[in-house]
Amino acid sequence: MGGDDEGRTADEAGQAPESPDQVPPAPVPPPEAPPAPVAPGFAPPGSVPPVPPGPVWQWAPPEEPRGPTVGGLIRGAIRLYRQAFSSLFGLALIQQAIQLVLLIPSLLIATRAANRMIELFERTPFPQAGSSSEAAQFQERFQAELQAAVVPDPGLAIWSALTSGVGVPLALIVLALFTALGLATYAGRSDSLSDAASTVSARLTSFLVPGVLLGICVVFISLPYGFNQTALSGSGQTLEGARLGALLSGLSIVIAIVVAYFAIRWSLAIPAMLAEGIGVRAGLRRSSELTQGMRLRIFGAVLLVGLAVVIVEVVGLVIAVVIGFATESLAVGVATGVVLLLGLLVAAAPVYPLLTVVAYRDRVPVPETTEPQT
Asked: How many CA atoms lie within 13 A of 103 on its CB side?
C-alpha cells in the first residue's frame, strides 16, 4: 500500500519517479554579456585589423616613384646648362651651322616663292569694277597663278627631300652628344666635348643605324611631292581633292599625336643607352619602364619650354619689324629677324636633352662608386 501511495503522489505532482539509472540534467549556463564596443580604428595588440566595409573590388594602387615636377625638370636642366654652358653652346653652334647647310634648298625654295609672289602682285592689274562673272574669272585665274608661284621646282624639291633625310641621322648623333655632356656634368665629370664624342663613338652604330633608316623613310615620304607638286597643289580645287585634303589633314594630326606619345615614352632611351651600355631595343624598353608615372610631367616640361621659345620668337619678330620700319629697309629687318631666330635656336637646342638627363637621373641615380673628376 505504501508503494501505491508514493506512485499516486508522483503522478499528482507530474513527475516520474527517480530510478537509480537516470542521470540528472546539466544546469543551463547563464547568457553571455554582449561584447564591449570597440573604438573606431582600435585593434588589440597581436590581432588582425578589421577590414573596412565596402566592395571587394576596391584596392589601393601601388606606390610608384613620383619623380621631379615640371618645374623641377626645367630647373635641373637650367642648372646643368649653366654648369656646362661653353661645351653645350659650342656644340649648338656646330649643329646650327650644319643645319643651315642642309637648309639651303629649302631657303632657295622659300626665296624663289617670295620673289614670284612679289612679281605677281606687281604685274597683275586688279579690276576696279565689273560684273560678278568677270570677278569670278579673275579670282580663279589669280589663284591659279598664285599656286604656280609658290610651287617649288622639281629639282629643288628633290634636293630638299634628300637633305632632310641626311639631317635625321646627324640630328640623332648631335642629340646623343648633348645627352653625353649632360650625363657627365650631372655626375661631376669633365664636360669636354671630346670626351662626349668618345662616349658616343663607342656606341655609334646604335645611333647611326636607326637614324639612317628614319632618314630613308623621310626621303621616300618627301620625294612624291617633288615629282607631283603641281597635281598636289591643285587638288583642292575639286570636291574630291578637298575631301582628300581634309582626310590627309586629319591623318597628319593623328600621326602627330602618336609621334608625340612615343617621343615622350622613349625620351629616356638615349640616356639609358649611354649610361647603361645597352642597345636600341633595350634602351626603348628601359625608357618605357622609367617614364611610367612621369610622362605627363615630361610632356608638360617640353610644352612649357616650347611655348617660351615661341614667345621669344614672336618678340624677336616684332623687334625685326620695328627695326625694318625705322631704317626703311626690308633687308635690314629680315636680316635682324634671321639673326635673332638663329640665336634663339642655338640657345634652346640643348634644353630638351638636358631635360631627359634630369628625368633619367631622378629614376637612376649616379652610382656611388663614381668619383667626381676635377
From this structure: 10
Coil vs helix vs strand at 36: coil
For residue 198, give the C-alpha cell.
668618345
pLDDT tens profile 81-135: 999 999 999 999 999 999 889 888 888 888 888 788 888 787 877 776 666 777 7
Taking the CA of residue 198 as centre, how many other CA atoms within 13 Å lie in the half-sphere pointing to its CB?
Answer: 7
Nearest 5°: CA angle at 187, between 182 and 191? 50
Residue with cell 570597440: 38
d(CA 230, CA 228): 6
User: Which SS3 state, helix, strand or coil, does residue 269 take?
Assistant: helix
Neighbours of 298 (CB within 10 A): 23
If you write DSSP's letter for every residue of 195-211 in order, what string do you get? HHHHHHHTTHHHHHHHH
For residue 37, which amino acid is it?
Answer: P
pLDDT digits (tens, 9 = 90+) for 188-239: 988 889 999 999 999 899 998 999 999 898 888 877 765 555 544 555 555 6
How confident is residue 79, by pLDDT bands cut at 50, 70 and 90?
very high
